[in-house]
Amino acid sequence: MSGLPLYRRALKQPDNVKRVLGMMRDQGVKHTIDRVRGRLSAGSPTGYSAAGTVVAVGDQIEGFSVGDRVACAGAGVANHAEVIDVPVNLAVKIPQGVSDQDGATVTLGAIAIQGVRRTSPTLGETIVVFGLGVLGQITVQLLKANGCRVLGTDLDSSKIDLAIRNGMDQGVSPSTDFVDRITRLTDGFGADAVVVTAATSSDDVISRAMQATRKKGRVVVVGDVGLNLKRSDFYSKELDFFISTSYGPGRYDPLYEEGGQDYPLAYVRWTENRNMETYLQLIASRQLRLDCLPTKVYPMQEAGAAYAELKGEGEKPSLVFLEYDSENTTNIESRSRKVDINRGVTLPGVIRVGLIGASSFAQGVHLPNMMKLRDRIALHAVVSRTGASAKAVAKQYQARYATTEYETVLEDPDIDLVIIATRHDLHAVMTLQALQAGKNVFVEKPLAIHQPELDAIAQFFQNADSHPVLMTGFNRRFSPAIQKARALIANRSTPLMINYRMNAGFIPAKHWVQGEEGGGRNIGEACHVYDLFNYLTGASAASICAKSITPAGKQWRRNDNFVATVKFNEGSVCSLTYTALGSKDHPKEKMEIFTDGMVISMDDYKSLSVSGSDRKGWESGAAQKGHMEELEAFVYCLKNDVDWPIPLEEQLSATQLSFDIEAAIRP
């Protein structure tokens, strides 16, 4: 178990995310393949259900030890891999008497259990299971364990026969008389409930399920089916219609799944983790059996054949497993986390880049811009939490290698520049380690989200006789609109009055930007504007005043809506209105500068107009926020050993302003 992804573990700092790192050993790693959801795609981790052995435990983890057998769940977490890094709430111990193979089905089991819980079955009820694939087969057994009479249907008659052999009371062909047949089998009333575990885009499944349900009965959807509901199917019967969300309460809640925050048992009896535990306990007690389902195991090297079989025609197994060879997975430290991609030779004089964090922003902005400057800068290495993502990006942009280890890049003498595009909480510590390793650093904003981090970076430059170049991604100062504004005020005789408005839009309180990883919207985004104030005034901040609105609802944070005013030591006064209350249809950013009888207006980085002067403004058909110009300026600095594009003191000052304003609006 490890508290952080592999490239975070290299930082050797206390865990702030409770995770489990499991390597599949002993009998080898087991992964379940679901033929509906198990799809291979370049750059995306594959798989969402696995079992194996714990090889490392995060600092904050309780209840797990190295050597424990565990079952893990979650797309992007329980991947098809020899080593996986798992949040604590998505892992459970495998009970004695349960094989790794059965444990690897834990995700499917939790999904089935949650569907049954949503159905709220009672002793003696008649319940129909619509769709008898692996989820349907497990659901049938769970309902029988609840003392229900179970009927089932599937287009494949062999699945009906399989379910009957495993305890289902009666099967019904999904023919045109399906509803009449269910009605006759329930003394004319209809089923007490129907659980839909089928997978089809057709709306007919839900319609027929409702028609087969008694008055005031329940219909529960577990599978992925069409939901174009017909009012006539459920209105007169006053049916209850339920959606079952995957593994149970906690699913899709980042605080639960990623942050390791459990729900109190007294208030949320069955979470997704407790559903996983229950499923394995039912297998251990033999109340639920998987050995009666057709099963096939493939070595991982034959994964392609496994998927091909599931896509092929004819009879297929209900469960297919991928298994790693335990002899090749016993020593985690000996495993290479670096994959060579391109053995080409980088042109002499070209700046070689190690990208840390293959984020959507990096892929959408920085990497395409680097390709336009390929005669001066080239991608050399890609680091990402998931190896598949790193490898896909490295291939696309012709990097030399991909890795999940941040230290690999720091130790690589061929890398001239590190670009850090991770979530905000890693920026400062990664920046400092890269600087200490002698690497030039481009770090996306914010430079830091805590005062001690910023102080440590400042201290590094105070103590170093010679040092690499640091640049924070304050791109707006490089935009054509701001460059034009700076030229217009270059010879001003009065201080500036600047009003900046950022119509930032709403972000939920649970979004990572609002939490520990993001630092909040003032520190994480408004720092752009504080850098602009520094740049346009060319002065140092003398004082600040900041006020936020008292949130009218719990969805708002104090740093969602505030006004901050900064007085500079040469007399200028700059004000930012930052709000999440506005409409997305309105432009996001506007600025007005008042000085020397002029009014300079910037509209969303698409235009700059000038009043009170015959000097021309600037206009573009699309927003230009300076990302390309920012990269060009940094590359020029590195290749020509000239002054930094953003002086260190201004990078520190903009970040310090964000801290001071945060303290004012969140006392």
Provide an overview of this structure.
This protein is α/β, with parallel strands linked by helices. It has 20 helices and 29 strands. The longest helix is centred in the last third of the chain and has 18 residues, at 648-665. It starts with 5 loop residues before the first helix and ends with a helix. Mean pLDDT is 88; it is low at 1-19, 21-29 and 32-43.
Keywords:
667 residues, alpha/beta, Quinone Oxidoreductase, Chain A, domain 1, Rossmann fold, 4 domains, 8-stranded mixed sheet, 20 helices, 29 strands, elongated, disordered N terminus
Brief overview:
Helix content is 30%, strand content 23%. The protein contains 20 helices and 29 strands. Residues 1-19, 21-29 and 32-43 have low confidence and may be disordered.
What's the helix and strand layout?
Layout: H1 6-9, E1 19-23, E2 30-33, E3 49-57, E4 69-73, E5 83-87, E6 91-93, H2 100-103, H3 106-119, E7 126-130, H4 134-145, E8 149-153, H5 157-165, E9 170-171, H6 178-185, E10 191-196, H7 204-211, E11 213-221, H8 231-234, E12 240-243, H9 254-257, H10 272-284, E13 295-299, H11 303-311, E14 319-323, E15 338-340, E16 351-356, H12 360-372, E17 377-383, H13 387-396, E18 401-403, H14 406-410, E19 417-420, H15 427-436, E20 440-443, H16 451-463, E21 470-472, H17 480-488, E22 497-503, H18 521-537, E23 541-548, E24 562-568, E25 573-579, E26 589-595, E27 598-603, E28 607-611, E29 618-619, H19 627-640, H20 648-665
Helix pairs in contact: 3-4, 3-10, 15-16, 18-20
